Amino acid sequence: QAPRPADDTAVRDLIASQSWEFVDWPSLPMLLVRHGLQALAAVHVSAVRDRMPESIWLEIHTGAMAARAAALALSAELFRILEQCAEAGVDVLPYKGPLLGWEAYRDLGARPSVDLDLLIRPTDLEATAVVLDRLGYRPDYHFSPAAARWFRRVDGDYPFEQRDTAGLVELHVRAMSRRFGPDPTTAELLTRRRIVMVSGRRLALPGTDDVFYLQVVHGGKHRWERLEWIVATAQLLRARGGDVSALHRGRYPDSRAVLLGCRLARDLLGVADNLARALQH
Length: 281
Hints:
The protein is α+β, with helices and mostly antiparallel strands.
């Protein structure tokens, strides 16, 4: 079941009901960019368009269109890479990036992304690198044999840069570094994947529990420095009806990331959850 987007009308009504008398309007477009909210905010702040300077509205609107265009272009590149990997017989599980926009908002253009993340089996690293090479990507990392063994065991994320566009793809032989806590194995994530339709394409995506867990771990890794990460987490939590009990039945032994993500969604965005009850059991 795909997540349901929040009620846009309710959000706009809430925004319209706030006091906007002392807003630092010139700083708003920059803050939206800083927190990855350009595309989302442009829809909602239209409710108070008559209260802001026209130049600010135009800057927000223009920025939102540019952010959406970039996200959709990145989505198209993702589809191109996945098609080439499928033809080469490489099993790939994409996550985060524009696909998180689909998971959280049902909109590939809703959130900005700087790269594409692809989870692969360790044994498929060389074959996937060949596919990327054919598409104009070159590896950023070059290791000695000893360093390569250590890196694959602990981190396992390999950046590849497109030589013409400077676009970035990260191949992951593990979904998260061991330095950031217990992680589900690649084999487990591939086993739990689901097939969904995204923009008319059949894609294999991580299971809904895994999407939520990887999102809160990613937010915690980066100290939740962007508000869009919290908004996306809240949307994923709403889609679950606030139910996170399944995340505490032995699959994810470390509940701290889930606890923090749920608390932020609850305290900042009012999303109810059953985390306290789940932790008691």
